[in-house]
## 1
Amino acid sequence: MAFCQNCGAKLIANARFCDTCGTPVDIASEAADSSSFANPKISSHPAIDLKKVLIPVIFGIAFIAVLIVAFTFYKPSKYDAYNKSILIYEGSDDNIIVEPYGKSNIEIEGTLIDSKLSLDGTKAIVVVSNTTKSKYDKNFEGYSLYYVSDKISLISDAVLNAQLSLSGDGVAFSKEFDSSLLVSDLCLWNKGKQVTVTDSLNLGYNYLISPDGKNVIYTVGKTDDFSTEYYDGKSVVKLGKDMVPAGLANKAKYIYYSKNSALYVMKNADGNTKQKLGEDVYFNFFFNKDMSEIIFVSDEKTYISVKGNAKKSLSSSILESFILPNSSSNNNRNVIAADTFANTLWLNTNSDIVRVNSKFDTTSVAKKVENNVYLASNGKTLIYMKNDSIYKINALKENDDAVKLVNKITSYVAANNGNTVYYINDDAEVYSQKGTGKAVKIGDDCEIVSFGRFGVFKDKTLYYVSDGELCSSKGKSGKIVTGINDEILGVVSTPNRFFVLIKDGKTISSLHSYDGAKWNVMDTDHLTAIYN
């Protein structure tokens, strides 16, 4: 049974509109969204599709926010990181700009429907439309699917949606779909070789590709009478009925699925090994990168399952999100770029920071913190804000005492190495401070702009807005950055790229730089994030 993206009500078979709230049922995005790891349709709890309700400006800011996590310069001790991420956005002339890191742009004609990055950011897929026909039009022929690595190539036309493996080596996609029957072909592409896995993919439920891109799990049959199958690269293995795929490890070493709103794990596609993990599991799914560990929420508590074994209680509260260094890859699929959840840091719904230790127990690091939390590239130095003050702590050291760095501030950012913080006080003055040393005043009249934050570029330069002007500082008095005359909406730095979101009349665009000197113009009215 499929569920409404807006209110969570059950949808009748082949419904075009929700019978409860009247929201249109978007077949393409329903199938595309449900194929992500982050939000399988396994309970009656509604999943709000923010991409449909946010205005283009927020799309752009979400894009920049994702970049804070996604693009990297440093190699942390625990977390995987990368520094050559592809940037994809819509241009102003009905084209799509694909920008491999530090290389020449590639242009694709058409409208951007979807795009996804590999976990290391060096490979991507782009789904493109070159028609104004609705996906529900009987003459609709589908979208074009491109694969991007060092070069760009067309995988297929007539595509409805697609999914890229974490490694970036494989792509699963549906094509030649029948909107009246809600079925399509499911194809698997891996390093240039393509096979059709089934011609009866059920579009109402998830299909998932393994991290290495060699296997896929999917559903076939009618919406109210479906079964689940697994393709091992050579043949199809039938798994059972009414199983909604939720996660797939390489070679099906671990298969996660839901049935009747409960979450299960199975080892090696063997039904005799299944473990029931929890009831009404929703929203909070987190996998390690080989999917041998899953952290999930059930009955308002948080649990972990390791290597397909029975669940173990982690916390009596909900662990809502994990804390990554700015330099660590994330890809927003609820997959953490690390081998294990041991010694990772989390925020719970009470705004407490907790650590999952090596025995998979949780210990408190800090309580009731505010939103700004920075984990340094070493994976252990944690900087956070509480009661208008900044604190620093070794989050992996048992019983370490937090050190207060600064009092009475309104906002701050931290360098990726964790050595320096930059903050704005109540008088709108901006300061730089290394550790507990003496603060150095950088400038006055520092503005917290509408979107984004002031940011640190390559741990050396702070960019901020003062009296409407973009300014930069390397720990001393700031200087105005010349050549930017438009209204500044957002200022964000990643470890190796710096972005300024600007507005000229009704046109919103972005500037970004690799070196802090030469600026590249992203001339677009609609910046699009690579969320999935």
Note: The chain has three helices and 45 strands.
## 2
Amino acid sequence: MTSSTVSITPLSRRLFPLLRWWPRVDRSTLKADALAGLIGAVVVLPQGVAFATLAGLPPEYGLYCAMVPTVVAALFGSSLHTVAGPTNPVSLMVFAVLSPLAAPMTPHYIELALTLALMSGIIMLAMGLLRFGSLVNFMSSSVVVGFTAALGVFIFASQLGNFLGIASAPAGFAGLVLATLRRLGDAQPWVIAVATTTLAIGALSRRVLPKVPPMLTAMVLGSLFAYVLNQTLGAGSTGLRTLGPLPGALPPLSFPDASAATLQNLLPGAVAVALVSLTQALSIAHAIALKSGQRLDNNQEFIAQGLANVAAAFFSGFPTSASANRCGINYDAGAKTPMSAIFSALLLVLVLLAVAPLVAYLPIAVVAGLLFLVAWNLIDFRRIRKILATSRGESAVLAVTFFATLLLDLEFAILVGVLVSLVLYLNRTSHPILRSLVPDPRHTGRKMTEVEDSLLECPQLKILRIEGSIYFGAVGHVERHLDTLREHSPGQKHLLLMSKSINFVDMAGAELLVEEARRRRAGGGQLYFYSLRKPAEELLERGGYMAELGRENVFRGKREAIGGVFTRLDLSICATCRARIFEECASVPGPGEAG
């Protein structure tokens, strides 16, 4: 280890994460990263154009998002393989948030997109600095699957007009579908032919040309088909409109609108964009990390994505995140360090210098076909089937998120899904599992098993295991079960709680236990604990509840617990008992035995 490595402090590593991976960089890694970067630059060309169009912005803005923001995210992230830039879910979120406020493609709309990038970036950066990285865990996979599937359906609806050659105004899902259906008679056959051909080429090229990015193949061949049609029939006859020339290969400086009114109008949307961007970035980063064996720092990823979005606001971009396609291709291409993402951004400038004039001939119908391909890939049918077959609760979360995304404003839909997930989670935790146990006569060593029809219980002692937490939300459920035990088995005056599975106890739970101990004592019995976890025990001590429960009623081991409780049972009942399920029962003569 070199002296320079030794001098790197945790603070410097946090401020400059590149210090963690820079020692890995050498001639071999630079060669591998440069190759992966070149592939990434070629891949992002059709994606950037398509995603910018989806966001309601000129095509060059999608390419600018893959330059400075990509470099910033690479320098400040913890992942070795994550590549930031324009993505389909975030692009659609941008369109959904901004289209009610301004007309797409206009200067005001572009200014709002810059402001949205700045605000969402600041929110992400603040969450990372405050170490809120674990908050993304509250967005369950069912929420993400439902949300992205609905985004795919929404993309179909939003691009249906371009696919058919019908002009359509920005609207919600239902409005887009109805407006398109009303104008089906205006559909242009040659536009449909080009869009369908692009879609088919993209779908088939994955099998025919697996090493070539499908979107790139579809864009090139679809554009050639449109060019031939225009040359043969004339642009007026085909109705094929093109994107027009790109203004330049380098992103110009830009300045967001920081007025109070604009910030207030965009705040809810910025929060939603930040959540979607972070969820996408972390899910992709962790998926790649599982393959590479790398450990990630969620908070550092928050910071990286936040800084990338802030950079997008000042370098002609819009909100960004980690791209699933580009990250996967980057890893599969043999990238070794974040230098691959930096190479991708630099090489994109060179690629643009070479092909920028050709983008002027890119038909809007081709872009619509590409976005249909993107929309189809967003719908994870395998995961949807698995969720529907596995869990009713998760299926409900998926369905609510899916329909909320289509019927509500997108910035609120994701929050609805998270809220439903939390409600279901709280419902599950508020119903801890309570199992009545007895020693299993089929095993030695006092192994406990759940009470079955063939197994007898002690007539004086109930053994109960609580699996979960006894907190304010679960108190009612646990209390009702304890009341039922006392009513149905009044002879079992003693209750032993197998406490190892009790995760934690709050004040409400502690008061419930104290009240149960009082009722047991009033009935001539007692409440006991076996293997109580330290956090729960410490809370009972701090709150003074242990004095009420009795320290002598808390046992560490199973043998100690059963032996200690047995000494407090009524031996006259033991003498007539035929269950005799404990080893200690042998010390008391049973029915028909000599005294």
Note: The chain has 27 helices and nine strands.
## 3
Amino acid sequence: MSRHGNPWSFSDRLKRNYKRRSLKKLTFFLTVDNVVKNAKSRLAASAKSSEALNISEPDVMNLKSTQIGTDTLCHVRKLYSEAKYDEAEKALFEFIEAGAKSADTYCLLADIQHALVRPDHEARALEQALAAGASAFLDNPEKIWLRLGVIRASQGDHVAAVAAYKQSLRIKPDQFAALYGLAQEYLTLHDLDAAYLCIKDLKSHFPHEARTHLLAGHIHKALGSTAQAQKCYYRALAYEPELGEALYNLVEMDPPGPDNPLAASAAKIASHNHLPAPDRINAGFALARIFDQSGRYAEAFEQTRRANNLARNTLKTRGVSYVPELAERRIARAITEYPVSSFHTTLDPLPIEFTPVFVFGLPRSGTTLIEQIITSHKDVQTVGERSFARQCELRFRKTRLEAGRTGPVDPSDKTDAELLAAAREQYIEDIFACGMDGSWIVDKLPANYQIAGFLRAIFPNARLVHSMRDPRATCFSLYWSNFHTHEPWYHNLMHIAHYYRQYSQLMKYWQRVIPGPYIEVDYEDLVHNPQEQITGLLHRIGLPFDSACLTFYDYKRPILTASHAQVRRPIYTGAIDHWRHYAEWLGPVRDLQAK
């Protein structure tokens, strides 16, 4: 039964089949100790850095030269210590190819790859070290699993990160860094129950750690318990006064005046060059909100600019940068892969009542608000902000290439049709395994705008809902928001404007070639005339009117996006023109054309 009491409308045979496959999949996940509830999320780059977890980065192994035992490895270590990483890598590869495949050798390789900022290669070397077996290094294998978890988390491979953290804890229980990392990953995967259990363990074993209370604050914030969240954040600051993340969350929920002690703390942390970058970035964004609240817009923008520059530089040191040419190629590929002919033939209809509603658009364009409105309907459920569809699209493209299929997607081709049908079935299984049992499911992920053609190809009946907002307001909000752990283009106004133009080009293309139901929602119209716009939105989706959608702010559910506060109160118009206070400093963003 759905949460509203409506039965899942599978035929008995199909229901048994889907349930059997889902249970089989669930059994697999249980065998790896309940990694996650079948989440396959690959978000934009994560901030679970070694610095945040207080892990010494290349020194986790602490290889002892006396254990290396060969002149070659001593030479490689010398090259490594002299920062001659390319030479060290070449010499070590030659040694490995000669048969020296010990754990110590792979650990050294991992250190070199770390120095070269190649996280994929570093992770592979760590996995090879674990597989190599007996070595003195394996006296502390939990550190290797912990380091592997940090890398996978930073790459957005949250399933692999969870598995690594859990393995580390299995070897050595009650490690703060591994438990903290695991709780963060569960929060990222929207598994609040699992995150809560981790935080409960953290409170039991590490009650005096500031980050224990920081994560507890995040849980309460997601649930809308503002007072409880504030208590947790204050407690975190009591243990670690320079913890910028706790400070930012306090200020964001209730911006104080410039004479408040929090303002002085933010100014001190933001200007302290010897503090970790994440603390300074959070403090800078906090200070911006304090100045904004007081109408000191020039000072607020200067703090925002500094925080974004620091965030961009921090990502660069991890090898993460915005490359405009790559963004352009991604858009061109989407257009090439899904010409109008891709929609002339459709897959056979599903023999079940299942209608997904995909909500997408740029971040900060109103997607969370639209999701909240639709999900308040008695017949609708939401999977939250998951990457199920994107993972299915990645698998489809990979298997299609392996099958020798290139060029435009053609559902009239037998191979493409079979691969699309398999992707659709995988998506439904992912939804089913999450406990979704209704016939109307909302899937909200802003970045899904890139794969709208794929979504229409696998679900001809899906409702594609595109949230549109004034580009200047959207792009300013991206720059203004504290997204320092997200995409690198958020932190430079020129890059934001360039990215917006690529997005706009693709959305105009989808609007022209994708058959309906394709629904565009204007954020400004929605805010100015909510009753009429909400009623019309439900009608276009094909849902009967439900007055609960008008009071969407009363519907209680965990919200982990930056819009958590806005969707818990009636619609207001204050945010529409906020960007205008900063127009004189927005440069290329100010020049973007309206929708």
Note: The chain is about 55% helix and 5% strand.
## 4
Amino acid sequence: MIPEMALRWARSLAQQKLGRVLIRLAVDLPGGQHLYCAVAARLAPMERRIFVERSLVVLTQGQRRRMAGRLARLMQKPRSIGVLETCWLAIAHAAAATTEASNLSASAPGQLVAEVHANTNFLFARAIAAYETSRFRDAVAAFCAIRDLARQELVQRFQYLKAAYAAGQVRDRALAAEFFARQFFFSGFTFDAVARRDFEEKLIQGTLATASAELQGHSCRGKSTRIGVFFLSSTEALGHAILDPYYFLVLHAKRFDVIMFIGPPRAAYRPASRVCLDIVERYGRYIETTNDVMLNLSWMNLGGVSQPPLEFTLEQFGEGVSAVGRWYKSEKIELGSLDLVIENYWSLLRDAVHRACDVNDAFEHNAWHMKLPESYGLIGEAFCFRHKIDIDKPLVVLHARADNYHGLEKQAFRNADIETYEPGVLELLDRGYQVLRIGDRGMPRLPIRHKNYRELPRLPGYRHELDPYFISKAAFMIGCQSGPCAYARALGTPLLSVNAVLHYTLLPAKMEMACFKRYKLIESSKLRPLDLEGALAAGVHHFDTTIQFERARVRLEPARPEEIKAAVKDMIAWLENPDLPETEHQLRFKAAVEHTAQELARKGRELDNPIADFIGISLPGYRISPTVAAMREAKSVDRGHGPASGKVEHGIQSGQ
């Protein structure tokens, strides 16, 4: 037994930053997880949930794996219900890093969860684990079960927002609105039509209060004005900072006379993402806010909220030379109709794909692209003069996402090794292209000494505005489905995606060719090639995290240097002849993508993630590198086995 004094000391330590660091070191010691559970088990139910969440934040992914594995074994014979609850919660918060989270999919053992708080903790753990592993249908079911059982904590820990996001991903906008309202406005038990109208009125009121000064400048003055409002908050993710407003404009701009963007203060953006706002503001006014409601709308899929034209009275008071020394003026002003477009990245992309595939809809993907502010041209010209870059000579912009990129280990499968790009870069230099690499100063160097190769972040005078400037001037960009390639898609620059990964949200650039990473299926500790058609059949295009690849026993390996060089040649050939006929390999892949698109549309709401009932690369303008496809098929045959089928473990076929 652990002395009560030691437990009190441990609980006190856990409230301090230093204490949480010590916990991080202690959980790897023999018996460390037992002490951890003993401390947590003595806490009140709500305190236990907060303790587990805060303490696990400081653990590395590897520590979370080890700890969750040990707790899963401890959970088989728990000493108390408190220990069992701690195991559930810890495994849930480690879900992004361990397959042990699947233990929470089973029903709770009835005799152990007779107490209300214990059942709440189990459901809470299920909700968090499902959310972290992108099993949004399961997350919604668990959040629905506890929405009235743990209301205080769900609000305090902003868990209702996770529930609202998950509901949006399963395309239940009514439920998403309810969860969002519960976070900020609604405290009752039944969210009926009256509560829904009240919620929408509060959103309109919040928007009016946030944008009041700007809205007064767009009063009708005898003319009917349609005002559209879109919400942004991508202060870190460059791709979202440019693509979210881009697709909003593509889909909705024609509906409005005036467009406003509402988001966080400019100072909150990291420098690279801040540049995106300059581009966005060419098409609408950006209004800063610190209001939590406004800021969190950008990640929601709630649809539209409309307000008919409003009439308000503008009153002014002042001092002046008159009989009484003061004057008063009252003027009635009519405000145009106000439409809040509350959609997120995924719902916008889904709308774009389905509209582009609808023969009765005039919408066309890649028919319109953004333009850069004139100031970017001045910045670019000055930089070119300083570093002797001839903007009239053909150039290619290169970006490869390195392992140091913002530490998102659960998406590390998207990273690449820049050294493998060297043959492709040398091929471009031999053909007379200038190659400009973008990224950050922390990226590993590519050891090429050539007057036409430059790594921009390391040059004096580099500014983030130069990234979109050079991408807009490039013959094509070499990207890797990471943030900067969003510029190519929004600006209409051809794109070669090296080390591409199959994913349903990828909507092609104007002309896009892919050199995919190599998919391997782990069979009896051996690796077997999984061709692209088999990977599509296996549903890997719905994988968002490393854990999903681990569960399916699928490994991703980077493209080889000779493959990248071949893809560069293929891209140049296509650009020189845009009508170049597609090869057998390209047509076969195209047919597999079209079949996948039809299957996803047919399944619709039956999918585990219903918002993912599309695959963007089914749209025109996308091709695979034909030479790379032929090289991989030949190697597979030479090794004495054909490509693996699309049958993988864990029921991925359903679209999980």
Note: The longest helix spans residues 584-603.
